[in-house]
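Researcher: Here's a chain I'd like modeled. Treat it as a single chain, no partners, no ligands.
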Amino acid sequence: MKDEPRGPQAAHLRQRKFQLLRRFPIPPDLLPGNLTRSFTRCGNPRCHCAHDKGHESWTLTFMAAKGQRQVERIPRDWVEEVERRVSAGREFQDTVREVLAANAQLLVLAREQRKKRRKPD
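Model: Modeled as a single isolated chain. Structure tokens:
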């Protein structure tokens, strides 16, 4: 883009954008999606699950290639680590959205400033 926006608003947006970009190099172990705990009953009338909440299970649900929803069972001993990675992935995605919004605002500001420079007084 030729016409970079100028002024305090543009400077603030650029500063925030680069602050976010420095904060988040892409970590290699981020995970998308949601980690969910659920309870199921096995059907055995003598099992504790017949009278209790059920058997605990964990699943990770995410969008795979070509928009396909994928659900994977997660072993209990992985839950804490997967939860941390999903949370980090969500924080990264939120930051990327904020950077994209700042870029869009900078574009709008540049266009507004360009219009003002071209108007004859």
